[in-house]
Amino acid sequence: MSLGLFTLGAVALDALFGEPKGWHPLVAFGKFANRLERRFNPGGRGWRSHGVSAWVLAVLPLTLGVWLLSELPYIGWLVGVIALYAAIGLRSLNEHAEPVANALQTGDLPEARKRVGYMVSRETRELDESAVARAATESVLENGSDAVFAALFWFAVAGAPGVVLYRLSNTLDAMWGYRNERFERFGWAAARIDDVLNYIPARLVALTYALLGKTALALRCWRRQAPQWDSPNAGPVMAAGAGALGVALGGPAVYHGELHQRPVLGEGPAARAEDISRAMDLVRQGVLLWLAALFIGGWFLA
């Protein structure tokens, strides 16, 4: 079974069923990670070495187990498809973004604020329509990279163990990778490992967005604006995505009661409700492009 068919199978399962209902392996993993954090970082007193130990215990045994299962005859291919299906979140991303766009289009700003609060970590209670649209569009572009394309990349590079290693590492970054008193030291390893694992995928995603949108503008925004962003991987993705869409993203946002003056990304008018849907279309088209590349690459390598 070729890499392209593996990937197509997982993407098709995601399109048909979305995230597993009732029990999701990442939810169970999150509970396990919380127990590790309480053990290795009591009261926020853990050091970097404790964070490294916790990361190793959380990620490597599961990755090794999936590698062993993927090597089994007859069912190894199924392990790969299921692992990738559990790791990607294309349908889930749309299920979070679409209600925000719909609420804005019907003029229900309180509902739009509530819905976008499920997507972002910033405070949303005081956002106006443009700020809600901007937050949702940013989330679609960034999570398209983290929750879809990077999983496809690591599956293509290292199969089932690669995508499991990536998805678990990305989950730990989301849980531990904060720059605050509790996680500044303990979460350092999770944040840095996620940066490394996302470095190449993020730039491939930025290039994908650029090719599928306003290419020259996207490349210019990527080159000039991404270095100003505090995340080495989100910067290229969102700058190129904003340029590809021809909208302005970034700008001030409140996180945990503190106002952050973020650089402006992209060029053009302020984001609107329809730009959320346009961002989702950009992600979907990018997935189709990557699937085509995997099939063509597999054909040449066969």
From TrEMBL:
TM spans (from-to): 52-69, 74-93, 147-166, 282-301
Keyword tRNA-binding: no
Compartments it resides in: Cell membrane
Keyword tags: Cell membrane, Cobalamin biosynthesis, Membrane, Transmembrane, Transmembrane helix
Pfam families on file: CobD_Cbib
Listed InterPro entries: Cobalamin_biosynth_CobD/CbiB
Topology of this chain in the membrane: Multi-pass membrane protein
Pathway it works in: Cofactor biosynthesis; adenosylcobalamin biosynthesis
First-listed, main subcellular location of the protein, grouped into a coarse class: membrane
Family designation: Belongs to the CobD/CbiB family.
Function: Converts cobyric acid to cobinamide by the addition of aminopropanol on the F carboxylic group.
Xref: NCBIfam families: cobal_cbiB (TIGR00380)
Protein name: Cobalamin biosynthesis protein CobD
